[in-house]
Amino acid sequence: MGNAMTDLTHDDPFTLFDAWMAEAAAAEPNDPNAMALATVGADGMPSVRMVLLKGVDPRGFVFFTNLESRKGEQLAAAPAAALCFHWKSLRRQVRVEGPVERVADAEADAYYASRPRGSRIGAWASRQSRPLASRAALEADVAAVEARHPDDDIPRPPFWSGFRVLPRRMEFWADRPFRLHDRHLFTGSTGTGWATGRLYP
């Protein structure tokens, strides 16, 4: 199954992505929804890190973060990003590029409320991407937040929300022998329709 290309007759890349994600969820031992997120800083230099996909719909790919983190600040200044899903067990990857927008507050609230209590506490306690003196300092911050919220009513921090990457380019790659890989490209958008074609490996 790892080398077999899922049917590429789809005219909608999200249909193909859903099929590949379902296969990855069955095959990958950890975090099939992990994706590399690339942004660009004010200095023009790229920055990349792994995050988790938390939602996908016909508009785009959603993840959540601290808005004051390095990626949050970069996306606020330059609202465009690239994603890369790599499923090693299936020998496949998907690349996504496009502009980025903030999710609606209601969407962020709903996802935040679904998180485990410890993760909601952590969202308040972590000054993400800022210098940390010690692990003990982080644990003290967690304890302070827990003391402020002894029950399960923990509101979403105003500095914590989500982003949606609105794809304009999506490439599906599958490993083949002798590096003669399959590459299938979609360009366009959900609103304007998708042009499709193959690329040389």
Task: Please summarize what this structure is.
The protein is of the alpha+beta class and 201 residues long. The chain has helices spanning 13-27, 70-77, 105-114, 117-125, 135-148; strands at 34-40, 46-52, 55-57, 60-66, 80-87, 92-102, 160-165, 169-174, 182-189, 193-198. It has a single domain, classed as Pnp Oxidase, Chain A (Roll).
Task: Characterise the protein shown here.
The chain is of the alpha+beta class and about 200 residues long. It contains five helices and ten strands; from the N terminus they run αββββαββαααββββ. α4 crosses α5. The chain is elongated. The two termini are about 20 Å apart. The relative contact order is 0.18.
Question: Keyphrases for this structure?
Answer:
10 strands; 5 helices; elongated; alpha+beta; 201 residues
Draw up the topology in text.
Blueprint: H1 13-27, E1 34-40, E2 46-52, E3 55-57, E4 60-66, H2 70-77, E5 80-87, E6 92-102, H3 105-114, H4 117-125, H5 135-148, E7 160-165, E8 169-174, E9 182-189, E10 193-198
Antiparallel strand pairs: 1-2, 1-5, 3-4, 4-7, 5-6, 6-7, 6-8, 8-9, 9-10
